[in-house]
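Chain X:
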Amino acid sequence: FSGIAAARMAATETERRMGVLVLDIGAGCTEYVLYRAGYPCFTGVVPVGGDHMTNDLAFGLRIGTLSADKLKITHASAALEHVGKDEKVWLLGDKNVGDRPVRREAIAQILMARVNELFEIIKADLGALADPEIIPGGVVLTGGSSRLDGIDLLAGRAFKVSARCAEPTA
Protein backbone atom coordinates (compact mmCIF):
# COMPACT_ATOMS: atom_id res chain seq x y z
CA PHE A 1 0.00 0.00 0.00
CA SER A 2 1.73 3.14 -1.20
CA GLY A 3 -0.19 5.28 1.30
CA ILE A 4 1.89 3.83 4.14
CA ALA A 5 5.11 4.51 2.23
CA ALA A 6 4.02 8.11 1.59
CA ALA A 7 3.05 8.52 5.24
CA ARG A 8 6.46 7.29 6.41
CA MET A 9 8.09 9.99 4.31
CA ALA A 10 5.62 12.81 4.95
CA ALA A 11 4.94 12.56 8.69
CA THR A 12 7.60 12.82 11.36
CA GLU A 13 8.18 10.09 13.91
CA THR A 14 6.77 12.42 16.58
CA GLU A 15 3.60 13.03 14.58
CA ARG A 16 3.12 9.30 14.03
CA ARG A 17 3.54 8.60 17.75
CA MET A 18 1.09 11.40 18.66
CA GLY A 19 -1.50 10.29 16.13
CA VAL A 20 -1.61 11.79 12.66
CA LEU A 21 -3.71 11.47 9.53
CA VAL A 22 -1.71 11.47 6.29
CA LEU A 23 -3.56 12.17 3.04
CA ASP A 24 -1.75 11.30 -0.19
CA ILE A 25 -3.75 13.19 -2.81
CA GLY A 26 -2.81 11.88 -6.22
CA ALA A 27 -4.25 12.38 -9.66
CA GLY A 28 -6.93 9.71 -9.65
CA CYS A 29 -7.34 8.83 -5.98
CA THR A 30 -6.51 9.80 -2.43
CA GLU A 31 -4.93 7.27 -0.11
CA TYR A 32 -4.99 7.94 3.60
CA VAL A 33 -3.35 6.46 6.68
CA LEU A 34 -4.22 7.14 10.30
CA TYR A 35 -1.35 6.58 12.71
CA ARG A 36 -1.81 6.02 16.44
CA ALA A 37 1.04 5.38 18.86
CA GLY A 38 3.44 5.23 15.91
CA TYR A 39 1.61 2.54 13.95
CA PRO A 40 -0.86 2.64 11.07
CA CYS A 41 -4.25 1.72 12.50
CA PHE A 42 -6.59 2.63 9.63
CA THR A 43 -6.05 3.01 5.90
CA GLY A 44 -8.25 3.68 2.94
CA VAL A 45 -8.52 4.85 -0.63
CA VAL A 46 -11.04 7.33 -2.02
CA PRO A 47 -11.43 7.46 -5.82
CA VAL A 48 -11.18 11.26 -5.87
CA GLY A 49 -8.02 13.16 -6.71
CA GLY A 50 -6.50 16.02 -8.64
CA ASP A 51 -7.93 14.90 -11.98
CA HIS A 52 -11.42 15.35 -10.53
CA MET A 53 -10.55 18.90 -9.51
CA THR A 54 -9.25 19.57 -13.01
CA ASN A 55 -12.41 18.13 -14.57
CA ASP A 56 -14.58 20.28 -12.30
CA LEU A 57 -12.72 23.39 -13.45
CA ALA A 58 -12.97 22.35 -17.10
CA PHE A 59 -16.72 21.77 -16.83
CA GLY A 60 -17.46 24.80 -14.66
CA LEU A 61 -15.43 27.23 -16.74
CA ARG A 62 -16.11 25.60 -20.12
CA ILE A 63 -12.46 25.08 -20.98
CA GLY A 64 -10.40 22.07 -22.01
CA THR A 65 -8.83 19.83 -19.40
CA LEU A 66 -5.29 20.83 -20.37
CA SER A 67 -6.16 24.50 -19.84
CA ALA A 68 -7.95 23.64 -16.60
CA ASP A 69 -4.96 21.72 -15.27
CA LYS A 70 -2.60 24.58 -16.13
CA LEU A 71 -4.99 27.02 -14.45
CA LYS A 72 -5.17 24.82 -11.33
CA ILE A 73 -1.39 24.69 -11.07
CA THR A 74 -0.63 28.35 -11.78
CA HIS A 75 -3.53 30.49 -10.54
CA ALA A 76 -5.93 28.44 -8.44
CA SER A 77 -6.65 28.36 -4.73
CA ALA A 78 -9.04 26.16 -2.78
CA ALA A 79 -9.51 28.82 -0.09
CA LEU A 80 -11.70 31.83 -0.78
CA GLU A 81 -9.76 33.97 1.68
CA HIS A 82 -6.61 33.51 -0.41
CA VAL A 83 -8.08 35.36 -3.40
CA GLY A 84 -9.31 38.91 -3.77
CA LYS A 85 -12.87 39.52 -4.89
CA ASP A 86 -11.67 41.59 -7.84
CA GLU A 87 -8.78 39.34 -8.91
CA LYS A 88 -9.17 37.90 -12.38
CA VAL A 89 -7.33 35.43 -14.58
CA TRP A 90 -7.35 35.62 -18.35
CA LEU A 91 -8.49 32.33 -19.92
CA LEU A 92 -7.56 31.47 -23.46
CA GLY A 93 -10.58 30.15 -25.28
CA ASP A 94 -10.98 27.46 -27.87
CA LYS A 95 -13.17 27.06 -30.94
CA ASN A 96 -16.36 27.12 -28.86
CA VAL A 97 -15.61 29.81 -26.28
CA GLY A 98 -13.47 32.91 -26.82
CA ASP A 99 -10.79 34.38 -24.57
CA ARG A 100 -12.22 35.89 -21.41
CA PRO A 101 -11.41 36.95 -17.85
CA VAL A 102 -12.57 34.76 -14.95
CA ARG A 103 -12.71 35.74 -11.30
CA ARG A 104 -10.25 33.80 -9.13
CA GLU A 105 -13.06 33.64 -6.58
CA ALA A 106 -15.11 31.51 -9.01
CA ILE A 107 -12.15 29.17 -9.47
CA ALA A 108 -11.74 28.86 -5.70
CA GLN A 109 -15.44 28.09 -5.23
CA ILE A 110 -15.27 25.22 -7.71
CA LEU A 111 -12.16 23.72 -6.13
CA MET A 112 -13.33 24.30 -2.56
CA ALA A 113 -16.49 22.28 -3.21
CA ARG A 114 -14.52 19.26 -4.51
CA VAL A 115 -11.85 19.42 -1.80
CA ASN A 116 -14.45 19.71 0.98
CA GLU A 117 -16.31 16.74 -0.51
CA LEU A 118 -13.10 14.69 -0.46
CA PHE A 119 -12.46 15.50 3.18
CA GLU A 120 -16.06 14.69 4.15
CA ILE A 121 -15.79 11.27 2.47
CA ILE A 122 -12.61 10.52 4.41
CA LYS A 123 -14.19 11.71 7.67
CA ALA A 124 -17.17 9.43 7.05
CA ASP A 125 -14.85 6.49 6.36
CA LEU A 126 -12.93 7.15 9.58
CA GLY A 127 -16.08 7.59 11.65
CA ALA A 128 -15.20 8.09 15.33
CA LEU A 129 -11.48 7.91 14.45
CA ALA A 130 -11.77 11.36 12.85
CA ASP A 131 -12.14 12.87 16.33
CA PRO A 132 -9.54 15.62 16.90
CA GLU A 133 -8.47 13.96 20.16
CA ILE A 134 -7.39 10.88 18.20
CA ILE A 135 -5.28 12.87 15.73
CA PRO A 136 -3.48 15.49 17.86
CA GLY A 137 -0.57 15.35 15.40
CA GLY A 138 -2.93 16.86 12.83
CA VAL A 139 -3.25 16.21 9.13
CA VAL A 140 -0.27 15.96 6.79
CA LEU A 141 -0.96 16.36 3.07
CA THR A 142 1.27 14.89 0.40
CA GLY A 143 0.99 14.03 -3.27
CA GLY A 144 0.80 16.28 -6.30
CA SER A 145 -2.58 17.80 -5.51
CA SER A 146 -1.48 18.71 -1.99
CA ARG A 147 0.34 21.62 -3.64
CA LEU A 148 -2.98 23.34 -4.35
CA ASP A 149 -2.97 26.66 -2.53
CA GLY A 150 -5.23 26.68 0.53
CA ILE A 151 -5.84 22.93 0.67
CA ASP A 152 -4.12 22.71 4.06
CA LEU A 153 -6.45 25.40 5.41
CA LEU A 154 -9.51 23.39 4.31
CA ALA A 155 -8.07 20.18 5.79
CA GLY A 156 -7.54 21.90 9.13
CA ARG A 157 -11.11 23.15 9.15
CA ALA A 158 -12.60 19.82 8.09
CA PHE A 159 -10.77 17.73 10.68
CA LYS A 160 -10.56 20.48 13.34
CA VAL A 161 -6.82 19.97 13.82
CA SER A 162 -3.64 21.57 12.51
CA ALA A 163 -2.78 20.70 8.91
CA ARG A 164 0.34 21.11 6.82
CA CYS A 165 1.70 20.13 3.45
CA ALA A 166 4.67 17.78 3.57
CA GLU A 167 7.95 19.16 2.31
CA PRO A 168 9.75 17.17 -0.37
CA THR A 169 12.85 15.39 0.88
CA ALA A 170 16.14 15.28 -0.96
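Chain Y:
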Amino acid sequence: MELRGLLSRAEGRDMPLGEIVESIPHRGHVLMIVLFSFPMSLPISPPFLGGVFGMVLTFLAFYLVIGRKPWMPHYLHHKPVSYRVLEKTIEKLSWAMRYLEILLKPRLLFMTKDERLWRMHGAFLLFMSVILALPIPMPAPFTNSVAALPIFLTSLGMLERDGRMIVVGYFSTLLCIGYYLALILLGREAFEYVWHFFGW
Protein backbone atom coordinates (compact mmCIF):
# COMPACT_ATOMS: atom_id res chain seq x y z
CA MET A 1 0.00 0.00 0.00
CA GLU A 2 1.39 3.42 -0.99
CA LEU A 3 0.68 4.88 2.43
CA ARG A 4 3.15 2.52 4.09
CA GLY A 5 5.92 4.39 2.31
CA LEU A 6 5.05 7.40 4.46
CA LEU A 7 6.21 5.64 7.59
CA SER A 8 9.60 4.88 6.04
CA ARG A 9 9.88 8.46 4.87
CA ALA A 10 8.91 9.84 8.26
CA GLU A 11 11.67 7.85 10.00
CA GLY A 12 9.98 8.24 13.36
CA ARG A 13 9.55 12.02 13.15
CA ASP A 14 6.43 14.15 12.99
CA MET A 15 5.47 15.08 9.42
CA PRO A 16 3.94 18.35 8.20
CA LEU A 17 0.55 17.95 6.52
CA GLY A 18 1.90 19.47 3.31
CA GLU A 19 4.70 16.92 3.11
CA ILE A 20 2.23 14.07 3.61
CA VAL A 21 0.03 15.29 0.76
CA GLU A 22 2.94 15.96 -1.60
CA SER A 23 4.59 12.60 -0.95
CA ILE A 24 1.83 10.65 -2.74
CA PRO A 25 1.36 12.12 -6.22
CA HIS A 26 -0.26 9.00 -7.72
CA ARG A 27 -4.02 9.18 -7.08
CA GLY A 28 -2.98 11.65 -4.40
CA HIS A 29 -6.22 13.57 -4.09
CA VAL A 30 -8.48 10.60 -3.41
CA LEU A 31 -5.92 8.54 -1.50
CA MET A 32 -5.25 11.43 0.87
CA ILE A 33 -8.98 11.92 1.38
CA VAL A 34 -9.25 8.23 2.32
CA LEU A 35 -6.32 8.62 4.74
CA PHE A 36 -7.57 11.75 6.50
CA SER A 37 -11.24 10.73 6.66
CA PHE A 38 -10.59 7.23 7.99
CA PRO A 39 -9.62 8.12 11.61
CA MET A 40 -12.52 10.58 11.76
CA SER A 41 -15.02 7.92 10.63
CA LEU A 42 -14.19 5.54 13.48
CA PRO A 43 -16.76 5.35 16.34
CA ILE A 44 -14.22 6.80 18.76
CA SER A 45 -12.38 9.49 16.81
CA PRO A 46 -9.99 12.12 18.19
CA PRO A 47 -12.21 15.19 18.73
CA PHE A 48 -9.34 17.66 18.47
CA LEU A 49 -8.48 16.48 14.94
CA GLY A 50 -11.96 17.02 13.46
CA GLY A 51 -11.46 20.70 12.64
CA VAL A 52 -7.91 20.33 11.33
CA PHE A 53 -8.55 17.21 9.25
CA GLY A 54 -11.83 18.72 8.11
CA MET A 55 -9.98 21.74 6.72
CA VAL A 56 -7.40 19.52 5.02
CA LEU A 57 -10.18 17.44 3.46
CA THR A 58 -11.91 20.62 2.31
CA PHE A 59 -8.82 21.76 0.42
CA LEU A 60 -8.19 18.30 -1.04
CA ALA A 61 -11.81 17.96 -2.21
CA PHE A 62 -11.83 21.47 -3.68
CA TYR A 63 -8.78 20.75 -5.81
CA LEU A 64 -10.27 17.39 -6.74
CA VAL A 65 -13.28 19.27 -8.14
CA ILE A 66 -11.18 21.69 -10.21
CA GLY A 67 -8.71 18.97 -11.22
CA ARG A 68 -5.53 20.61 -9.96
CA LYS A 69 -2.70 19.70 -7.61
CA PRO A 70 -3.70 20.33 -3.98
CA TRP A 71 -2.49 23.52 -2.34
CA MET A 72 -2.82 24.39 1.32
CA PRO A 73 -2.25 27.63 3.20
CA HIS A 74 0.96 28.04 5.17
CA TYR A 75 -0.75 27.26 8.49
CA LEU A 76 -2.00 23.86 7.35
CA HIS A 77 0.97 23.04 5.13
CA HIS A 78 3.39 23.23 8.06
CA LYS A 79 1.09 21.83 10.76
CA PRO A 80 2.75 18.66 12.06
CA VAL A 81 1.06 15.29 12.39
CA SER A 82 2.70 13.21 15.11
CA TYR A 83 4.40 10.02 13.98
CA ARG A 84 2.33 8.05 16.50
CA VAL A 85 -0.96 9.31 15.03
CA LEU A 86 0.29 8.69 11.48
CA GLU A 87 1.52 5.19 12.32
CA LYS A 88 -1.69 4.16 14.11
CA THR A 89 -3.86 5.57 11.31
CA ILE A 90 -1.97 3.78 8.55
CA GLU A 91 -1.83 0.50 10.50
CA LYS A 92 -5.58 0.58 11.21
CA LEU A 93 -6.39 1.59 7.63
CA SER A 94 -4.20 -1.21 6.25
CA TRP A 95 -5.95 -3.69 8.55
CA ALA A 96 -9.37 -2.43 7.48
CA MET A 97 -8.45 -2.53 3.79
CA ARG A 98 -7.62 -6.23 4.01
CA TYR A 99 -11.26 -6.88 4.84
CA LEU A 100 -12.77 -4.12 2.72
CA GLU A 101 -11.01 -5.40 -0.40
CA ILE A 102 -13.21 -8.50 -0.15
CA LEU A 103 -16.21 -6.22 -0.70
CA LEU A 104 -14.62 -3.71 -3.05
CA LYS A 105 -14.34 -4.42 -6.77
CA PRO A 106 -14.72 -2.45 -10.00
CA ARG A 107 -18.44 -2.11 -10.81
CA LEU A 108 -20.83 0.56 -12.04
CA LEU A 109 -17.74 1.91 -13.75
CA PHE A 110 -19.62 4.79 -15.40
CA MET A 111 -19.67 6.45 -11.97
CA THR A 112 -15.88 6.74 -11.94
CA LYS A 113 -15.15 7.09 -15.67
CA ASP A 114 -17.47 10.01 -16.43
CA GLU A 115 -15.64 13.29 -15.78
CA ARG A 116 -18.82 15.13 -14.80
CA LEU A 117 -19.77 12.48 -12.25
CA TRP A 118 -16.21 12.47 -10.91
CA ARG A 119 -16.45 16.22 -10.27
CA MET A 120 -19.89 15.73 -8.74
CA HIS A 121 -18.40 13.23 -6.29
CA GLY A 122 -15.71 15.78 -5.53
CA ALA A 123 -18.34 18.43 -4.85
CA PHE A 124 -20.11 16.02 -2.49
CA LEU A 125 -16.84 15.34 -0.65
CA LEU A 126 -16.23 19.09 -0.46
CA PHE A 127 -19.65 19.71 1.08
CA MET A 128 -19.24 16.95 3.69
CA SER A 129 -15.69 18.12 4.47
CA VAL A 130 -17.00 21.60 5.25
CA ILE A 131 -19.58 20.01 7.59
CA LEU A 132 -16.80 18.08 9.31
CA ALA A 133 -14.64 21.19 9.68
CA LEU A 134 -17.40 23.30 11.24
CA PRO A 135 -17.19 23.70 15.01
CA ILE A 136 -20.12 21.99 16.73
CA PRO A 137 -21.65 24.29 19.37
CA MET A 138 -22.67 21.40 21.63
CA PRO A 139 -20.17 18.51 21.45
CA ALA A 140 -21.67 15.02 21.52
CA PRO A 141 -20.44 11.49 20.71
CA PHE A 142 -20.02 10.56 17.04
CA THR A 143 -20.32 14.13 15.67
CA ASN A 144 -17.09 13.62 13.72
CA SER A 145 -17.89 10.04 12.73
CA VAL A 146 -21.27 10.62 11.09
CA ALA A 147 -19.85 13.46 8.97
CA ALA A 148 -16.64 11.64 8.04
CA LEU A 149 -18.19 8.26 7.18
CA PRO A 150 -19.78 9.44 3.88
CA ILE A 151 -16.43 11.02 2.95
CA PHE A 152 -14.52 7.82 3.67
CA LEU A 153 -16.93 5.47 1.87
CA THR A 154 -17.32 7.69 -1.20
CA SER A 155 -13.59 8.35 -1.60
CA LEU A 156 -12.90 4.64 -1.06
CA GLY A 157 -15.32 3.82 -3.87
CA MET A 158 -13.62 6.38 -6.11
CA LEU A 159 -10.18 4.99 -5.28
CA GLU A 160 -11.19 1.38 -6.03
CA ARG A 161 -13.52 2.30 -8.95
CA ASP A 162 -16.45 0.76 -7.07
CA GLY A 163 -19.58 2.64 -8.06
CA ARG A 164 -21.71 0.68 -5.62
CA MET A 165 -19.56 1.83 -2.70
CA ILE A 166 -19.94 5.42 -3.93
CA VAL A 167 -23.72 4.97 -3.80
CA VAL A 168 -23.40 3.60 -0.25
CA GLY A 169 -21.35 6.67 0.61
CA TYR A 170 -24.08 8.97 -0.66
CA PHE A 171 -26.79 7.12 1.24
CA SER A 172 -24.74 7.14 4.45
CA THR A 173 -25.35 10.90 4.47
CA LEU A 174 -28.84 10.06 5.73
CA LEU A 175 -27.21 8.82 8.94
CA CYS A 176 -25.44 12.17 9.28
CA ILE A 177 -28.61 14.16 8.66
CA GLY A 178 -30.63 12.01 11.06
CA TYR A 179 -28.00 12.28 13.78
CA TYR A 180 -27.73 16.05 13.62
CA LEU A 181 -31.51 16.44 13.54
CA ALA A 182 -31.80 14.22 16.61
CA LEU A 183 -29.03 16.22 18.28
CA ILE A 184 -30.92 19.45 17.64
CA LEU A 185 -34.27 18.06 18.76
CA LEU A 186 -33.18 15.95 21.72
CA GLY A 187 -30.11 17.83 22.86
CA ARG A 188 -26.69 16.61 23.93
CA GLU A 189 -27.99 15.27 27.27
CA ALA A 190 -29.95 12.50 25.56
CA PHE A 191 -26.86 11.25 23.75
CA GLU A 192 -24.74 11.43 26.90
CA TYR A 193 -27.39 9.40 28.76
CA VAL A 194 -27.25 6.66 26.09
CA TRP A 195 -23.45 6.87 26.08
CA HIS A 196 -23.21 6.30 29.84
CA PHE A 197 -26.04 3.75 29.86
CA PHE A 198 -24.01 1.42 27.64
CA GLY A 199 -20.88 2.16 29.63
CA TRP A 200 -19.00 3.84 26.77
